[in-house]
Design brief:
Shape: globular
Number of helices: 4
Oligomer: single chain
CATH architecture of the largest domain: 6 Propeller
Strand order of the largest sheet: 1-9-8-7-30
CATH class of the largest domain: Mainly Beta
CATH topology of the largest domain: Neuraminidase
Distance between the termini: 25 Å
Largest sheet: 5 strands, mixed
């Protein structure tokens, strides 16, 4: 893993200007239903893009993105018959029909005035028509971001929903033996590429959380003398504390507009939820119950907060107004509910649940109905949503083993380890990059 730097951050965040569509074809005859748990992955042919090694690399990253979503099945290139395809050539559709490709994605990479230019086409093979054509331009070192942007465009065209591939994940990287682990704040592309450490203080880093509107994170740092909550701008590397509080502060999370941070303060065994306005640094206490109230998460419209409280005798989930008004319990099934987080679409609340000796990641509607358990293991915890609200990251730990990052979609069908080889915990997903 390399060391994070301002230069690295700015390069990773560079915008990729896109040209207008080449074609405005009618809605696809082929379509992927993301809401079905029994969906069969769509067979898609993805030959290496023209333009030499970079073209092959682009196709490789795109294919991996689409396959990891669980909704697409890239076909074996050894089966391809039409081998002279590029963005300027009409596909030989019968050749692709013969290998039963439903969709065909092909393109061309070239260098124009020192910049990387990538043209690509997406076609419906059996309808024999083009569905999408675009051009992306970038500095050559940002070729992976071009690939992720193409993956997002294909995902959106065929599912009708925004993709999540041109994003990053912040997490706590762990190293060392059990009982003496070193934990460092880290960041990587959503596919595990380009991992780097972020300078974030000398204490134990916990619960990093992304703003949904910018490349800014908030996190808790624990030291022997106490804890603090920090804001860190990943574009400028500027770090600032929310201030000093009487008691232990933890579990920070941004409001949807990025203008506030909600968090918990523990004093004398009692924890309550507070919120700070980042413009004027005014702090408001939202809960006053003599219980443990923690893990606040805003609804996408900013009007409500879901949180975890043991005021009923065991950890359960509650919803209140963003001003702390009208708290209402929403979980009543057997088990201990913690770590709630509202989906970006507002459709679900994700949570960690403990029943007996097992831990689960689950989702439910905001009124507590339609609970669905997505994962179960020795220890699954800390769900975090992709920006399109279709996939969750979480931490999985085996008995006696280290923590690993995993993902699961909202159907529970697509469960897989993240492509990051090291130990990690507390993942949080960025918004789509610009």
């Amino acid at each position: 893993m390399t060391t994070f730097s301002k230069r690295t951050a700015l390069a990773a965040l560079a915008a990729l200007p896109a040209a207008a569509m080449f074609s405005g074809a009618a809605r696809a005859d082929i379509e992927v239903n993301v809401n079905r748990g029994d969906v069969q992955p769509l067979p898609i042919a993805l030959p290496a893009f023209g333009g030499g090694p970079v073209g092959a690399d682009l196709a490789g990253v795109i294919g991996a993105d689409l396959q990891r979503s669980g909704l697409f099945r890239p076909l074996d290139p050894a089966s391809f018959i039409d081998r002279d395809l590029n963005a300027a050539v009409q596909p030989n559709y019968p050749a692709w029909q013969k290998i039963n490709a439903q969709a065909l994605l092909y393109g061309q990479a070239s260098s124009v005035d020192g910049r990387l230019q990538v043209d690509f086409r997406l076609s419906d093979v059996f309808a024999e028509k083009e569905l999408l054509g675009q051009r992306f331009a970038s500095s050559p070192e940002n070729w992976r971001r071009v690939a992720h942007k193409i993956s997002d465009a294909v995902y959106q065209r065929l599912t009708g929903e925004k993709g999540y591939f041109d994003t990053r994940v912040v997490f706590v990287a762990e190293s060392g033996a059990r009982g003496s682990k070193t934990k460092r704040l880290a960041i990587m592309d959503q596919d595990g590429a380009n991992p780097s450490y972020i300078p974030a203080g000398e204490g134990v880093i916990m619960t990093p959380r992304f703003s949904s509107t910018s490349q800014e994170i908030t996190y808790m740092e624990l030291r022997p003398e106490g804890s603090k909550i920090y804001l860190l701008n990943l574009e400028t590397n500027r770090r600032e504390s929310l201030g000093d509080f009487k008691g232990m502060v933890f579990a920070p999370r941004f409001s949807p507009d990025g203008g506030k941070v909600a968090f918990s303060v523990e004093r004398g065994g009692n924890s309550d939820i507070f919120v700070m306005d980042l413009k004027n640094r005014a702090t408001t206490r939202l809960t006053t119950d003599p219980a443990i109230d923690t893990s606040p998460s805003y609804s996408p419209d900013g009007g409500r907060i879901v949180f975890n409280s043991d005021r009923s005798g065991s950890p359960q989930l509650y919803i209140m107004g963003a001003d702390g008004s009208n708290p209402k319990r929403i979980t009543f099934a057997a088990g201990r509910y913690t770590a709630p987080v509202w989906s970006p679409t507002g459709e679900f609340i994700a949570f960690t649940k403990q029943t007996g000796g097992d831990f689960h990641i689950g989702i439910m509607k905001p009124d507590g109905t339609d609970e669905r358990i997505l994962t179960s293991s020795y220890l699954d915890e800390g769900p975090a949503w992709a920006p399109n609200g279709r996939v969750l990251l979480f931490t999985r730990q085996g008995a006696g083993g280290g923590s690993k990052l995993w993902s699961v979609d909202v159907t529970g069908r697509i469960l897989q380890p993240m492509p990051y080889p090291g130990a990690g915990s507390d993942p949080a997903w960025s918004p789509l990059l610009n």
